Amino acid sequence: AALTVRFLTRRFIGEYGDMEFIYSHNLTVDGREILFHIWDAPNTQEQTEDGSSEEKRIQWADSFVLVYSICDRASFNILPLKVQFIKAAKEGQSQEKVPIIIVGNKRDLHHQRVVSSEEGRLLALSLDCGFYEVSAAE
């Protein structure tokens, strides 16, 4: 949520609850106006156990940004399963590759890092995804 709000407002707000939000945002990219609809959903245990709401989000979306905390190994470890689930749902319907970006957040908290940049890059490469490491705070 912090990364989404930072993208939309250019402000950082550090604490969020486990709530889902859908945002709409216009942005001009290369002279073209693009309308983003962002379904920001926290990763919770219930979603892992009940794939129906996750399936709905996957069918709704055209591309995916999966965010993990570099300070939380569990948030990183769930990524291969998430990517596999997305690809099975989206690429099974067509021959087009679904755009997926993996983002390591909290780069500013390097002293609490438990997932290295190299691990993130290698995972993204192995899953055929893009990769960035960022700090919503900075």
UniProtKB/TrEMBL annotation:
It catalyses: GTP + H2O = GDP + phosphate + H(+). SUPFAM superfamilies: P-loop containing nucleoside triphosphate hydrolases. It comes from the Eukaryota. Pfam families: Ras. GO terms for molecular function: G protein activity; GTP binding. Keywords: GTP-binding, Hydrolase, Nucleotide-binding. It is an enzyme of class 3 (hydrolase). Its EC number is 3.6.5.2. Signal peptide: none annotated. SMART domains: RAB, RAS. Belongs to the small GTPase superfamily. Ras family. This is small monomeric GTPase. It comes from Scytalopus superciliaris. The gene is Rasl11b_1.
